Amino acid sequence: MRVGGSPAGSSRALRLDPFALPVRFSAADAAADERVRDVELHRERVVVRRAVRGMRMALNLPVSAFLGVAISMLPPEGETQAAVAVMLEHKDPSLALPLFMSPESDDVMAQWQSWSRVLGLPLLVAEADGDLREPFARLGQIRIHAPRQRRRRRGPLKRRRPSILLRRRPGRITETTPVRRGEREIIARN
Fold this sequence. Notes:
disordered N terminus, mainly beta, six-stranded mixed sheet, PH-domain like, four-stranded antiparallel sheet, elongated, 12 strands
């Protein structure tokens, strides 16, 4: 599947489907001849084809070599307005790949989370200075957060108090309580 005839970064509009992999597209590359590189994206690998000074090359990288899926703001350039981008970030900034770019921020969160889930990479946020950080604390592949207070009725120990005391008051015998003597009680005995 080829997206458009122009490089992906030129029109500021790029929308790839994370659920239709493998996908092929063209992206802007400042170091390559003709300023274009062809990208083939699979669930487990990425193939980047480009020509530098007439020498054609293909980089075959596993998806696990990338840092994660980052969301970032692209500043306005010339007449184009600012845009929101979802990028597949690598340690080498020249290998970062655009996955989604749009001037509107309608679908950006859904795209960001979908790409992260499909590729199995962590979510990242690009800061204004270019640093990447994780928006949620993680321990390995598991997101962690402060434990919240459990609801009393579903807690494992229910705070070590019987819940029946919360619903009923114990009965008390007073002087006005009727007491019946000499009557037969109906009790089922074997």
